[in-house]
Amino acid sequence: MTGYFLRRAAGALAVLLVLSVVVYATFYIAPGDPARLACGPRCNPEQIAQVRAQLSLGDPVYVQHWHFLQGIFAGHDYSTGTAVLHCDAPCFGLSYQNNQQVTDMLIERLPATASLAVGAMAVALLLGTATGLLSALRRGGITERVLTWLTLAGTATPVFISGLGLLMLFCAYLAWLPFPAYVPLTEDPEQWAWNMLLPWAALGLLESAKYARLMRSSTLETLAEDHIRTFRAYGVAERKLVTRHALRGAVAPVVALSAADFGSMFGGAVLTEMMFGLPGIGALLVHATTTLDLPVVVAVVMVTGTAVVIANIVADVLYAAADRRVALR
């Protein structure tokens, strides 16, 4: 186990290093002038040259990238024109729009994204695994046909369609829920939960269709294995056969995929955050892209990439824990 984690940690660091090179080259070395973006449209050439010197854009490319990595792990000093501001590690620089530390902006937005990701994943797993398992156990019947059509409809329905439908049904027509307005968990847990129900349902319904299809195929494959047929031949009850012997192997791929998807949700739930007005990382990325705020865009991409890499390691471990036939090598 220790050797496996060391190898995966080394591989993760290599992937993140390559990601940092690609991200830095894409946003800071590609055609365009970061100094002009940081200074603003009203800056004269002298001011742009001053900003370029402050950002060390005149140094060789490898030196610029080293300063970028150094800022992430050790912090950096930035001149704002009136004072020198020290940015503690991890430091992704200062926003071009308000000179605020990008790290502080991410920390401020992270709770909303984490709330959405955790709740939506719980809805997707509960609904998806239950639907997929029931569809596999009722194979060939009317139940399977109905669930299969519902799963296909859920896969084909974009989140902005399902989200709009939920808003119209539960907020406008039935008036069972208030229109979502994000409330931090630390301020009012009850209002936080009520306002997050519809975002969880909109994103969770979309993801649950994928898990339902995977759970159905995995369950059918597991039930067709030799040891299951042997247990059935010895007269083991079908319910005991499924819950005690088949379910653990069938759920392993779902667990692994959910762990990987959870990492990608930190930057991939943009439409859900924008539709329900959640002040999350996805909404921050959209705003930074429209205003060409490069440090914020780079930070979101790096944080999302790191979350995906870590989630894939967790997915491998959970897969091995769920299925004893899999060995960590």
Automatic annotation (TrEMBL):
The record, for SUPFAM superfamilies, names: MetI-like
Q: Which domain of life is it from?
A: Bacteria
Q: Does the keyword Cell membrane apply?
A: yes
InterPro entries linked to this entry:
BPD_transp_1_N, MetI-like, MetI-like_sf
This protein's membrane topology, according to the annotation, is: Multi-pass membrane protein
Instruction: State the UniProt keywords alphabetically.
Output: Cell membrane, Membrane, Transmembrane, Transmembrane helix, Transport
Name its cellular compartments: Cell membrane
Which is a Pfam family this sequence falls into?
BPD_transp_1
Q: Where is the ABC transmembrane type-1 domain?
A: 110-319
Q: Which residues cross the membrane?
A: 114-137, 149-176, 192-209, 296-322
Q: Its family?
A: Belongs to the binding-protein-dependent transport system permease family.
Identify this protein by name. Answer: ABC transporter permease
Q: What is the lineage of its organism?
A: Bacteria, Bacillati, Actinomycetota, Actinomycetes, Kitasatosporales
